[in-house]
UniProtKB/TrEMBL annotation:
This is Ornithine cyclodeaminase. The lineage of its organism: Bacteria, Bacillati, Actinomycetota, Actinomycetes, Pseudonocardiales. One of its GO terms (cellular component) is cytoplasm. It comes from the Bacteria. It comes from Amycolatopsis xylanica.
Length: 335
């Protein structure tokens, strides 16, 4: 019988490969074009909610990339209070498979990939939907994805002003200081969502709420604003869509999948305020050139991305190719 091996890539292994933010943005934008051109197989996410007193849940994401001939599954935990144990709130593993034989190819630490592909999705969305002259960024949240949101957005827009906040003063102060050091520019740490968002050109809501709370209000959205909300529990005012000209999603079916509590616009969906007719486009159709993105400077555009398995697989596949070339990681006997 043929001996089967698979490659295990830890976070430390990935760190040795020299992967840049631009590499991750390119991988995400490329696979979004594949979405728009029907070159992926994309299954709905599911949730596993353990009997753990509400400490957290797992997301299971599945997909296949036809152009790259790789299939895969990601399991990622979402445990809000992990900071109390010195752990990330989101930790993940990605399994990559050969779609011709079903043979497992790799086990990849998906924690950095989850954070980075989320930031890359925000950045790609802004590239196509924000005003090119956007100068002020307002960001709620200091979770792992927040770093990649701000750094990758700034690599495109080179903001004059960056404002950040989060629920805990110690987390927002540390986040602001780390960003300022990385970006070489001042970062304004704010105490409230209103101070952070009001009048910003680009707004990102990546909060870690336990119960819905209207942190983002419609009066914050001025003509030309671009808003990206993706907190697991909604932080949007219920009637916020009244102030939005265009709604773009990563995938309409995915917007409706999973537990009905989870998702930034779930209350709007549940109340019938967000319907398929209200959605301008999926981002893949815009990246592929099949639908327009921003059409004039005064449009107020909301981009809701819940996370596509295909972006995880695209980034993991890019990393695996580099690891194979460098013979990085550990080869494990499968059978």
């Amino acid at each position: 019988m043929t001996r089967v091996w698979l490659r295990y890539l830890s976070g430390a292994d990935i760190d040795t490969l020299g992967v840049t933010g631009a590499d991750i943005v390119d991988a995400v934008e490329d696979v979004l074009a594949d979405h728009g051109n029907d070159r992926v197989v994309f299954e709905p996410r599911t949730h596993l909610v353990p009997d753990n007193g509400g400490k957290g849940h797992f997301n299971i994401l599945r997909g296949h990339l036809s152009e790259k001939q790789v299939s895969g599954v990601k399991v990622v935990g979402d445990f809000v209070t992990n900071f109390e144990r010195g752990l990330p709130s989101e930790m993940a593993l990605i399994l990559l498979f050969d779609p011709e034989t079903g043979m497992p190819r790799a086990i990849v630490d998906g924690t950095m990939i989850t954070d980075a592909r989320t930031g890359a999705m925000t950045a790609v969305g802004a590239k196509h939907l924000a005003r090119p002259d956007s100068r002020v960024l307002g960001h709620i949240g200091a979770r792992g994805t927040a770093w990649w949101n701000v750094v990758l957005l700034d690599s495109i827009f080179d903001f004059d002003e960056i404002r950040v906040t989060s629920k805990r003063p110690e987390s927002r102060e540390a986040f602001g200081a780390k960003l300022a050091e990385q970006l070489g520019k001042p970062v304004r740490v704010c105490a409230t969502a209103e101070e952070t968002l009001d009048g910003a050109d680009i707004m990102v809501e990546a909060s870690r709420l336990i119960e819905p709370e209207p942190l983002v209000r419609k009066e914050f959205l001025r003509p030309g604003t671009f808003l990206v909300p993706y907190g697991t529990i909604s932080a949007l005012e219920l009637d916020l869509l009244d102030a939005v000209d265009k709604v773009v999603v990563d995938n309409w079916r995915e917007s409706q999948s999973g537990n009905p509590r989870f998702g930034a616009l779930r209350p709007q969906l549940n109340a019938g305020l967000l319907t398929e007719d209200r959605v301008h486009a999926e981002i893949g159709d815009i990246v592929a050139g099949h639908r327009p993105g921003r059409e004039h400077d005064t449009e107020r555009i909301l981009f809701w991305h819940r996370g596509l398995s295909t972006t995880d697989l695209a980034v993991a596949h890019m990393i695996l190719a580099r690891a194979e070339a460098a013979d990085a990681g550990i080869m494990l006997p499968y059978r």
